[in-house]
């Protein structure tokens, strides 16, 4: 039995699947991965992306933050790939209970998934830091300089910047779903970003599937390890 067939068999046996995904889920939709060879970390800017995407930089260099953010983080024309679409199908069929994602692009929702736990927020939610009024990602794309609310306040993307805490309620809901899962599928993540990566330790089952082209610290814990592109795996199961 090959690994894809093993994956299919595990899926067939499961009723409470949780998917935990990272940047690799979205790269096949044309969204750059920070840590890959062609990702943002290997391009040259006045400051490293990790610095620009920090809370301190946002406060101190707000206009420069937004120049980078609009240029590199808002890929609103990206479309869901095979992984996003298959996960949404599993949810409609009642097999998948939640998608836990480190991505901020909203592609899981675009594919039709409903229970998506966004650990790092979403580019599709933006709010005025003064009055709390909401603004769309399209508004942010079309804005210039520092985007401002009609009240004059700065509009901030609802994304977790370096130096900011994760949303406690979302983390607790993710932990609850992972702990109750009868199958955990991890895909497209190096499992190097904490505290998000530590959430998978709450899984107690024996159907841990890890799909990632490069090694992760949890490879030895996987019941099934697939070192392939996530899109090609999900297009065949």
Automatic annotation (TrEMBL):
The EC number on file is: 2.3.1.286
Record note on cofactor: Binds 1 zinc ion per subunit.
Organism's domain of life?
Bacteria
The Deacetylase sirtuin-type domain covers: 1-237
Under catalytic activity, the entry for this protein gives: N(6)-acetyl-L-lysyl-[protein] + NAD(+) + H2O = 2''-O-acetyl-ADP-D-ribose + nicotinamide + L-lysyl-[protein]
Q: Active site: which residues?
A: 120
User: What cofactor is needed?
Assistant: Zn(2+)
Kindly give the Gene3D superfamilies that the UniProt entry links to this protein. Answer: SIR2/SIRT2 'Small Domain (3.30.1600.10), TPP-binding domain (3.40.50.1220)
The residues that the entry says bind NAD(+) are 23, 27, 34-35, 102, 104-105, 120, 189-190, 212, 230
The EC class name is transferase
Q: Report keywords, A-Z.
A: Cytoplasm, Metal-binding, NAD, Transferase, Zinc
Pfam families annotated for this entry? SIR2
Localization recorded for this chain is:
Cytoplasm
Write out the residues that bind Zn(2+): 128, 131, 149, 151
Q: Which InterPro entries match?
A: DHS-like_NAD/FAD-binding_dom, NAD-dep_sirtuin_deacylases, Sirtuin, Sirtuin_cat_small_dom_sf, Sirtuin_class_U, Ssirtuin_cat_dom
Assigned protein family: Belongs to the sirtuin family. Class U subfamily.
What is the annotated role of this protein in its UniProt record? NAD-dependent protein deacetylase which modulates the activities of several enzymes which are inactive in their acetylated form.
Q: What is this protein called?
A: NAD-dependent protein deacetylase
Encoding gene per record = cobB
């Amino acid at each position: 039995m090959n690994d894809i067939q093993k994956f299919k068999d595990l899926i067939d046996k499961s009723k409470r699947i949780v998917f935990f995904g990272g940047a690799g889920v979205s790269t096949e939709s044309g969204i750059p991965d920070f840590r890959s060879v062609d990702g943002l970390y290997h391009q040259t800017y006045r400051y490293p992306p990790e610095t620009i995407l920090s809370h301190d930089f946002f406060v101190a260099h707000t206009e420069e933050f937004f120049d980078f953010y609009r240029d590199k983080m808002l890929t609103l024309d990206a479309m869901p790939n095979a992984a996003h679409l298959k996960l949404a199908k599993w949810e409609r069929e009642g097999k998948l209970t939640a998608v836990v994602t480190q991505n901020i692009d909203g592609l899981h929702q675009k594919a039709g998934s409903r229970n998506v736990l966004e650990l790092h927020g979403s580019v599709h939610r933006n709010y005025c830091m003064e009055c709390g009024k909401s603004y769309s990602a399209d508004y942010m794309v079309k804005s210039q300089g520092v985007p401002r609310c009609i009240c004059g306040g700065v509009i901030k993307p609802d994304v977790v910047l370096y130096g900011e805490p994760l949303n406690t309620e979302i983390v607790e809901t993710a932990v609850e779903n992972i702990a109750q899962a009868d199958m955990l599928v991890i895909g497209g993540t190096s499992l190097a970003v904490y505290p998000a990566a530590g959430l998978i330790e709450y899984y107690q089952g024996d159907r841990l599937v890890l799909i990632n082209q490069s090694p992760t610290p949890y490879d030895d814990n996987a019941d099934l390890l697939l070192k392939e592109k996530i899109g090609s795996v999900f297009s065949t199961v």
